[in-house]
From TrEMBL:
UniProt protein name: ER lumen protein-retaining receptor
GO MF, any single term: ER retention sequence binding
Keyword Lipid metabolism tagged: no
Record family assignment: Belongs to the ERD2 family.
Lineage: Eukaryota, Fungi, Fungi incertae sedis, Zoopagomycota, Kickxellomycotina
Tree of life domain: Eukaryota
Primary localisation category: endoplasmic reticulum
Organism: Mycoemilia scoparia
Keyword check for GTP-binding: no
InterPro entries: ER_ret_rcpt
Keywords: Endoplasmic reticulum, ER-Golgi transport, Membrane, Protein transport, Receptor, Transmembrane, Transmembrane helix, Transport
Transmembrane residue ranges: 65-82, 94-111, 118-136, 148-167, 179-200
Annotated compartments: Endoplasmic reticulum membrane
Amino acid sequence: MNIFRLTGDMMHLASILILLNKMHTSKSCAGISFKTQALYLAVFVARYLDLFLHFVSLYNTLMKIFFIASSAYIVYLMFNPLRHTYDAPLDTFRVEYLVGISAFLALLFTGKYNIDEILWTFSIFLESVAILPQLFQMTRTGEAETITAHYVFALGAYRALYLFNWVYRYYTEPKYYDVIVWIAGLVQTALYGDFFYIYFNR
């Protein structure tokens, strides 16, 4: 654990809390991509299947539970009680390509050919592009609610801080080396580039 990872984790938590607060206070999920939220749920389920098999720390376990539970809850809210406010005609990104390419890359670059490792690698690649439906929807409308913009910014900040976390670990942990995570993280951060520029200017 280091300051960059801890701050990144807090930004990730903040992004979810911002989104949940928006949905509960406005009783609406307008402007939110259901496809992005479903992809994040898939990411967390695939990555944290070892939840009850490998204990690292209480912090690690609680974070895993929170990310799975909160993502499932957001998907539930959008699919059921807030479904009438969902902008389905605007949420048209073809996510099957993202899932298919991520699965192909996971099979190609996995460290070990067992189900845990393949699913973990799949989750890394899928997370790097999961925000695309949300960004695409915001681009189509040409605008976003302030709260939605804050949500996306917090997600982008989380990923950017993790880049610093990896640099820090590379220089402080002699055996730390994970090219797949680094490349996927760089791709994910780059996807936020235009959004960050617009966010800070507005």
